[in-house]
Amino acid sequence: MTGQAQPPRLLEPFAKNATECTPEEPVAGGKTVPFPQPSQISVLSGAASLDDGFVPLNMTDPTSGGVPPFGVDMNGILFYISSWAAYFAAGQLPQYDATLQTFMAGYAVGSVLSKAAAPWETWTSIVDGNMTDPDSGGAGWVSSSPLYSAVALTGTNDVVLPGPSDYVFSVNTASAAVTYSGFVAQRDGQRVSFTPNSAANLLNFLALTGSAAGNQLCIPTELSAVQNQTYTFQYSTGQGKWILV
After folding, report:
1. Are residues 167 and 221 part of one domain?
2. pTM for this structure?
């Protein structure tokens, strides 16, 4: 096989239940939490940090003045690293963090974050050094929803689709006059295509009437889908709607 074999599942961080402490006041079997980021060389001889790692004294013979690594530091750094490993192994994505953003001078282009309000959806940075907050409408982020996400209907108007950067696959028809039992959807750029995959999966689009809500389908007359025929809608930025093309 190509690639790498999946490693054994990491069920929890290393030293999860070890007592939190500091190298200055160690506890037998404990761990350094929080693990310090700045150098500890001037704070405690032999203490480790993210900046320095284990210091030169830790690698010097004790008979020549060296200081063996502190066990609590070893537990602490392994707990710190394996906490993130366990987080990602569980299939989770991090959310926006202003402190981290400032520390690293902005998110890199291509960074992917989970949305705070809808964790199953994501933000992707399209600029380098991104210093804005995507959850507050910050610029330089693209919103994405997963395939198979439900799309709600509004009133008696047509199917309401997400914005041009989102994906759709299924529809909830509980509150609108649409006949539906499933369709296949694909999105390419700012277009979305529907292809009914069986006679039982047909969809009737109704002509838009009344006040137009954002992102609604805009068609001049009622349209009844035909099995295996594709219907493509393109998003109009000027009109803020999906239009049949």
Report:
1. yes
2. 0.62
